[in-house]
Amino acid sequence: METLFKKHQILVSQVNMDIIREMINSISWERQLVAIRGSRGVGKTTLMRQYIRQKYGVKPGEALYCVLDSLYFTSHSLLQLAEHFHLMGGKHLFLDEVHKYPTWSREIKEIIDLYPDLKITFTGSSLLQILNADADLSRRVLSYDMAGLSFREFLHFYKGIRMSACSLNEVLSNADDICLEINKLCKPQQMFEQYLRVGYYPFYDGNEEEYYSRIENVVSFIIDQEMTQLCGVDISNTRKVKALLMFLAENVPYEVNIAKLSTYLELNKQTVLGYLNGMQRAELLHLLYSDNKSVTRLQKPDKIYLHNPNMFYALGQQNKIGTIRECFAVNQLAVKHTVEYGKAQGDFRIDGRITIEVGGQDKTFDQIADLPDSYILADMMEYPVGKKLPLWLAGMTY
Questions:
Q1: If you write DSSP's letter for every residue of 227-253 in order, what string do you get?
Q2: Which CATH superfamily is domain 2-146 in?
Q3: 144: which of 46, 94, 171, 260 lies 20 to 30 Å off by Cα?
Q4: Could you tell me if 356 and 377 are in contact, meaning their C-beta atoms sit under 8 angstroms apart?
Q5: Phi, psi at residue 146, to the nearest 5°?
Q6: What is the pTM of this model?
Q7: Nearest to 283 by CA among 125, 130, 170
Q8: Can you give the residue ranges of every domain in the chain?
Q9: CA distance linking residue 220 with residue 184, whole number of Å
Q10: Cis peptide before 253 (omega within 30 of 0)
Q11: What per-residue string of b and e applies to 253-274 under the rule 16 or more CB within 10 Å gives b?
């Protein structure tokens, strides 16, 4: 335990408190069991340590922060830790990366049964299946999903520009006022072009080459470690999953031909579909369907995008500007809304009712002129013109 206390103090004292994501205020930290899920690199660990430092200070006592791939857990169980911590007057356990501890769900269930006054907050991969874990915690856990930085958060993190989040309805109905406010503070189009390159993950330090190298490392870790552990990907097939990702990066937005992918990868169709679904859960891809309500588990998607714009640059596909625009819109809007493939009627349908067409500043309404609740999100604009809105406004919704 003394080793864990020392690590707690070191790790919590090192966390930067200069900028804290607003999500910290929306989490009900005082609930007995809280889960924070998200892709590797989006900032789950930082947020947890910031909350601990804010609430409990640096020294361990009532709170204890542990990373579950620590050597401590090679000779001690999580249950033993909780027992000792509770006996010492501990109130709140913070467990980072629980998916690295094989029996995490069973032991957490036993802990909250034995010690109802002990709170547990844990983080895990976006692939973490709370519902289908060994012990079903779904009725007892309050779960949050953490995304990377929105364009709005990027402005706060890297430019010191603070703007309140807007609902999609506010963006669509009040675009003039929102644009007026932000244009007083910065040149949003200039900032937006930087966001597309380096804005999604909160670890950009001014060196683009290192940033893209870190994204590649994140992608490799997700495929090599998390997808093999949590998605049932055969270790011998991880190179094929990476090849699939590169094929899609070069060809997105990809109107899916599963037979072609199957032949290319020398895998059967069900395996390819399973890998695609796993890559979506791992936040490497967005799979779009023309009707989300009727989607079956192994139905082929209608269109595929990389998960976020920065991945295009990291994977050497920075010239696909039209696709990068569409990827940005999907990535930002999918955090709080359902996004469907629009087929012939616009690029996307949002929440089953709003039609969105994405393009450059010369984009016209020809394809969606007769559709109600239809809008254009256009690049290279700082102010709206009627229902033609700046594309970057989609990044103000969270």
A1: HHHHS---GGGHHHHHHHHHHHHHHPS
A2: P-loop containing nucleotide triphosphate hydrolases (3.40.50.300)
A3: 171
A4: yes
A5: -110, 125
A6: 0.94
A7: 125
A8: 2-146, 152-396
A9: 41
A10: yes
A11: bbebebeebbeebebeeebbbb
What is the token pair recorded at 297? 């588990």
Distance, in Å, from the CA atom of 389 to the CA atom of 132, rounded to the nearest integer, reads 42
Cα→Cα distances 108→47, 70, 145, 235, 381, Å: 21, 17, 19, 28, 50
Say how far apart CA 80 and CA 143 lie, in whole Å: 25
- The two three-digit tokens of residue 397, written as one number: 């919704």
| C-beta separation of 67 from 21 below 8 A | no
- The strand pair at 92-96 and 63-67 is best described as parallel
Identify the burial level of 65 via C-beta atoms within 10 angstroms of its C-beta, where 0-12 means exposed, 13-18 middle and 19 or more buried: buried
**Residue 95, both tokens:** 């467990």
pLDDT in tens, the chain (398 residues): 889 999 999 999 999 999 999 999 999 999 999 999 999 999 999 999 999 999 999 999 999 999 999 999 999 999 999 999 999 999 999 999 999 999 999 999 999 999 999 999 999 999 998 766 666 788 899 999 999 999 999 999 999 999 999 999 999 999 999 999 999 999 999 999 999 999 999 999 999 999 999 999 999 999 999 999 999 999 999 999 999 999 999 988 777 899 999 999 999 999 999 999 999 999 999 999 998 877 766 689 999 999 999 999 999 999 999 999 999 999 999 999 999 999 878 999 999 999 999 999 999 998 898 899 999 999 999 999 999 999 999 999 99
Q: What residue has token string 């999604």?
A: 200
Q: Which two tokens stand for residue 202?
A: 């909160």
Length of the chain: 398
Quick one: tokens of 68? 């579950």
